[in-house]
Amino acid sequence: MGGDDRPPVRPETDRLLCDVMLGKLAVYLRVCGFDTAYAGDRGIEADDRIAETARREGRRLCTRDAELADRVHGSILLAERDLEAQLAELKAAGVKLTVTDPPKYCGRCNGELLAVTPDEGTPGYAPDPGEVECFRCQSCGQVFWKGSHYERMTETIESAR
């Protein structure tokens, strides 16, 4: 994708699909506010099904597979295996990678996140929403908050060059 005159890739305008090689990257893209489907979550491994899903859902495909990228218009082809290097590749290609606040998408399933009110309560693994801002996925029910894992993810995104 790099080096051409396409407009920047932004969460406000672009929906993404990561192939089965990019599951970890999908989580980071969701943290950056991208509506990011992951082929592995859907049990889609065959290239023809991945290509069809990207076209049908109007998603830009992120892949490390050059042949697959050639089959899907607007694909983002990544060369690197390392997550930080992939993030750096995306930044260099004009992908806007900024952690959204408040978060929009579940890192686990890409469902919509909504703030948990203090009277709702949270599962035992999560902090009290009266003390720490928490978010619940409307699809899978997972609860998220800005703890040490969130801070590490933010640092990884910001430090990718």
Verbal overview:
The structure is a single chain. The chain has 161 residues and is α/β, with parallel strands linked by helices. Helix content is 30%, strand content 15%. It has 5 helices and 7 strands, in the order βαβαβαβαβββα. The strands form 2 sheets. A 4-stranded parallel sheet has the order 2-1-3-4, with helices on both faces. It comes from Natronomonas aquatica. This is Mut7-C RNAse domain-containing protein. Pfam families: Mut7-C (PF01927).
What's a concise summary of this model?
InterPro entries: Mut7-C_RNAse_dom. With 161 residues, the protein is of the alpha/beta class.
Task: Give the biggest sheet.
Answer: 4 strands, parallel
Which ranges are low-confidence, i.e. pLDDT below 50, for 5 or more consecutive residues?
none
What is the beta-strand fraction? 5-15%
Radius of gyration, Cα only, in angstroms?
A: 16 Å
